[in-house]
Amino acid sequence: MKPVRNVYVCLQACFFVVCLLVMGASYGDARSLYRQPVILDTDIGNSTDDLYAMDLLYKMARRGEVDIKGIVVDRQGDGFADLADIMNTYYGFPDIPIGVERQGVVNSTIHIDYRMLDDLKNADGSKMFARTDTNLQDNLDGYKLYRKLLAESKDHSVKIIGIGFVSSLVQLLESGPDEYSDLPGRELVRRKVDSFYFMATKLGKNADPGYNLRFDIPLSRRFLTEWPWEVKVYLSPSPVGGAIEYPVEMVMQDLANEEKHPILQVYRNKDCNTGQKMWDFLCVVNAVKPEVFAYSPTGFVSLDEAGQICFTKDKQGNYVYQLAGNKKWNDKMLAFLRFYGK
Questions:
Q1: CATH number of the domain bearing residue 6
Q2: How many domains does the chain have?
Q3: How many CB atoms lie within 10 A of CB 199?
Q4: DSSP three-state, residue 91
Q5: Close Cβ partners of 313 (under 8 Å, ≥ 6 residues apart)
């Protein structure tokens, strides 16, 4: 009976994906006329879930659901922003601007370093993955790209998806007027940003700030203090995505017919059996299809000097967090990740 049950679960999950697609299409002409402006802020180059978040975002852009205004690579160091250019080029969005972090978090753990993607060659010696932006040293700092993109945007229109560190965001919040806007950074965020979707924290009994906040507690505290309370923050706690596992064998099977896919090449060249879960893509889903989630009451988030994080319920608060789903929900979300756009 086990194979029959597996088929049934798969059919259920596929039906869920179809429902989400139809749900999106049901907005009709309004959806086709409006693409949600988003900026992705990623620490790409550390774990594979960043790649899946980007994969999903590009597919949503192809469907006309989002307009990717820019990508901020918040991981400091050589080769990380190059990965964003590889992804932009591979998925057919070579003109998406990339911001580079030059004053970021240092000495953070790298679980899976896949910067070797830029060095892979075809049998004839040519580069496996084409590049577009090959002079990244000339690119704007991440916070400067934020200022430029937000200044060009309509008020309260941009959704920021944060699946990395907050270094570029803190620099944005603390920035002053410049050639792009007369507004200081905090006011620019208050005026232009609709909401922020952030993969961070483990709330509850064993509260922990999580990977994206842990490596620089003073910096993270500055972010929590300076973020405008008028702009809502949707947290994706690590236990929610931590329950969604995409086994290596399943990944290899799903991408078997796409030999030169960057994600497949990462899995072929690196050991991805490192406990990686599908954390980051939930922020993308949250920003575009919020109806999929159940949320906590509103409240405030604080982080003390010792790194203890606390969520306090308050009707006046601007933070909510995703609630964990059951196994059925987890299976459906994995199916959404696997089959969306195919």
A1: 3.90.245.10
A2: 1
A3: 30
A4: coil
A5: 296, 297, 298, 299
